[in-house]
């Protein structure tokens, strides 16, 4: 199979997955039987519900409605927010930069820190440093992001008054949410880098490199780490999903005006067109990240090329 | 090396099991252990810090804004959260294993359809999917269990399928097939026991994720509704009182951390042990 065919097949699968997500997102509103009653306030009268149902086309057969929804989405029309009475796509677009900033900042520091800690722990394996790094990694994975966030607010913002408790502004506003959101991910990267580096260091080619008289630094950085990268990259895509989920809670705690906060507000307001669009967007990002990882993997590792 | 590895595995298992048993026993014993009422409070005793006594009644972990004993609320909340997580985890494991075995054993169209469903399910951030469904069908304990269980099967199916693909090629299974054993017997007697171990390890590694997920939904106020306490909604309620009563946030979080660490240690220990045995 050529790279082009591989790409085509991979993109086809991605499209199929998104089609499935759209079906789940669409039909979940029918779980209670009447989406019109679901979307209107509890005190809406029977006549109001009927009028709304007719206006939204809920009386048509399901399959007709679903195809109509798909057609609209394909042309970029994600519907109108029930709460804000504005196109959903505009609302999402407004909030996207804040979430992207938070995600990139968290991903950047946690990947960097994870790699450094993982390398140090693997090189000094079974020593005191290794033990300490593993303790840090363990606690990073043990505490839920919202609890860590609240502890950070309590200590850093309320008690020491070093950084703002929340909101959107300069770098000072970004630090705490990024730390809270990235902690779990940093632990995961640390553990992965440590494990795969230890495995790589036991391989024959590393022994050869050492026998050649290369410095330990060069052996680790040039020979072992290169091969330890692959499993890390593969798992990164999976963690990307938990990052998106974590952003939801983080944004609530730190009053960060991003997609996550928009999603929770939309759910609380029963603003379903908005919720649907956000779920679809999150899934699209996840699927795209996975495709990119697959491509990177194929490029980095000629052995699995197809 | 192997001796060392198995000692480490044993240590992991002991620590993990110890932590989990402690929390589970405390949650199960609940009222017998600490008879204070988790729902009814004393308005004369609001927001007392840990260790204070009001009218001769000791509050080891303090009280909340309605004068309810925090220890009693945490015990009750742990029981609710843990029940949801354990039942949901079991549902996800059984459902996923069944679908994965079917996909791996029969291959073909069924396999393709089930695996695409797994892809779809894993593409949606769990918490968004759960929030969406719970907001439609309502946040009862039963609904939460069903939603957490039904949305968590994907990873179990993926692993069960991979293991089944390996196992079905083994000679004695081919022999069983040649003998004309019915398919369901081959699966029940020969395939399932072979993949059970890896599924149990996976379950212990999935449980901490479910603990955090359930707590997150509760924290956002979209899970089990007050006054019934859960580990998540306790922290959610305490959030606005962070500066005056930080114990309301601290202690429930510690229980979550203990559960997550405990399950993770058990999972890691089991993993190490299977690996050590393979070597």
Relevant terms:
heterodimer, A: 306 residues, mainly alpha, MetI-like fold, 12 helices, B: 279 residues, 10 helices, 73% helix
Distance, first to last CA of chain A: 6 Å
Helix and strand composition category of chain B: mainly alpha
**In this structure, how is the largest beta sheet of chain A organized?**
none
Number of domain modules of chain A: 2
**The CATH topology of the largest domain in chain A, please?**
MetI-like fold
Gyration radius of chain A (Cα, Å) is 24 Å
Examine the secondary-structure arrangement and name the CATH architecture of the largest domain in chain A: Orthogonal Bundle
Give structural notes.
The complex is a heterodimer of chains A (306) and B (279). Chain A has 2 domains: 3-74, no CATH class; 95-305, MetI-like fold. With 306 residues, chain A is mainly α. Chain A has helices at residues 3-27, 35-39, 46-56, 62-74, 88-123, 128-142, 145-159, 171-201, 204-211, 216-253, 259-268, 272-300. The N and C termini of chain A lie close together (6 Å). Chain B is 73% helix and 2% strand. Chain B has helices spanning 2-29, 70-106, 108-123, 126-137, 141-151, 154-167, 171-178, 183-219, 231-238, 247-278; strands spanning 52-54, 57-59. The model of chain B has no long low-confidence stretch (mean pLDDT 90). Chain B has 279 residues and is mainly alpha-helical. Chain B has a two-stranded antiparallel sheet. The A-B interface holds A 13, 16-18, 20-21, 24-25, 28-29, 31-32, 38, 138-139, 141-147, 150-151, 153-154, 158, 241-242, 244-245, 248-249, 252-253, 263-264, 267-268, 270, 275, 278-279, 282-283, 286-287, 290 and B 116-117, 119-120, 122-129, 131-133, 135-137, 208, 212, 215-216, 219-222, 235, 239, 242-243, 246, 249-250, 253, 256-257, 260-261, 264.
């Amino acid at each position: 199979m050529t790279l082009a065919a591989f790409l085509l097949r991979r993109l086809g699968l991605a499209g199929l997955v998104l089609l499935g997500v759209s079906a789940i997102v669409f039909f979940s509103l029918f779980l209670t039987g009447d989406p019109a009653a679901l979307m209107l306030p509890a005190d809406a009268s029977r006549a109001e519900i009927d009028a709304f149902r007719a206006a939204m086309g809920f009386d048509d057969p399901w399959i007709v409605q679903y195809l109509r929804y798909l057609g609209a989405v394909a042309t970029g029309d994600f519907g109108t927010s029930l709460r804000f009475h504005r196109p959903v796509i505009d609302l999402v677009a407004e909030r996207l930069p804040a979430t992207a900033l938070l995600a990139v900042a968290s991903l950047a520091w946690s990947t960097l820190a994870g790699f450094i800690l993982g390398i140090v722990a693997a090189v000094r394996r079974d020593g005191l440093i290794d033990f300490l790094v593993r303790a840090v990694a363990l606690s990073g994975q043990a505490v839920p992001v919202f609890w860590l966030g609240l502890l950070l607010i309590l200590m850093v913002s309320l008690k020491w008054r070093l950084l703002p408790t929340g909101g959107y502004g300069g770098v000072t506003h970004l630090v705490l949410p990024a730390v809270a959101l990235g902690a779990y991910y940093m632990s995961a990267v640390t553990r992965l880098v440590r494990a795969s580096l230890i495995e790589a260091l036991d391989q024959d080619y590393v022994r050869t490199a050492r026998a050649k008289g290369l410095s330990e630094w060069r052996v680790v950085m040039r020979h072992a780490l290169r091969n330890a990268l692959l499993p890390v990259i593969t798992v990164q895509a999976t963690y990307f999903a938990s990052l998106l989920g974590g952003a939801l809670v983080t944004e609530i705690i730190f009053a960060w005006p991003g997609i996550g906060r928009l999603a929770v507000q939309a759910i609380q307001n029963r603003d379903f067109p908005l919720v649907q669009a956000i779920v679809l967007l999150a899934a699209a990002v996840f699927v795209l990240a996975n495709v990119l990882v697959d491509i990177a993997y194929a490029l980095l590792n000629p052995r699995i090329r197809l | 090396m192997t001796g060392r590895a198995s000692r480490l595995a044993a240590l992991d298992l002991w620590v993990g099991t110890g932590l989990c048993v402690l929390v589970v026993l405390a949650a199960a014993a609940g009222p017998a252990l600490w008879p204070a009422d988790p729902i009814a409070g004393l308005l004369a005793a609001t927001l007392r810090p840990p260790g204070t006594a009001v009218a001769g009644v000791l509050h080891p972990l303090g009280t909340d804004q309605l004068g309810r004993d925090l220890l009693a609320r945490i015990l009750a909340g742990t029981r609710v959260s843990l029940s949801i997580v354990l039942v949901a985890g079991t549902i996800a494991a059984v459902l996923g294993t069944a679908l994965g075995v079917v996909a791996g054993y029969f291959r073909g169209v069924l396999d393709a359809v089930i695996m695409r469903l797994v892809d779809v399910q894993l593409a949606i951030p769990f918490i968004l999917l759960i929030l969406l469904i719970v907001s439609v069908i309502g946040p009862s304990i039963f609904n939460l269990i069903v939603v957490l269980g039904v949305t968590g099967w994907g990873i179990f199916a993926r692993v069960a399928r991979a293991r089944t693909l390996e196992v079905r090629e083994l000679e004695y299974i081919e022999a069983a097939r040649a003998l004309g054993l019915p398919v369901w017997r081959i699966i029940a007697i020969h395939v399932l026991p072979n993949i059970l171990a890896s599924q149990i390890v996976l379950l212990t590694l999935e449980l901490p994720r479910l603990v955090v997920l359930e707590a997150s939904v509760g924290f956002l106020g979209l899970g089990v509704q007050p006054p019934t306490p859960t580990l998540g909604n306790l922290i959610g309620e305490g959030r606005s009182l962070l500066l005056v009563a930080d114990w309301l946030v601290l202690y429930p979080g510690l229980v979550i951390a203990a559960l997550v660490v405990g399950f993770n240690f058990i999972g890691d220990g089991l993993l190490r042990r299977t690996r050590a045995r393979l070597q």
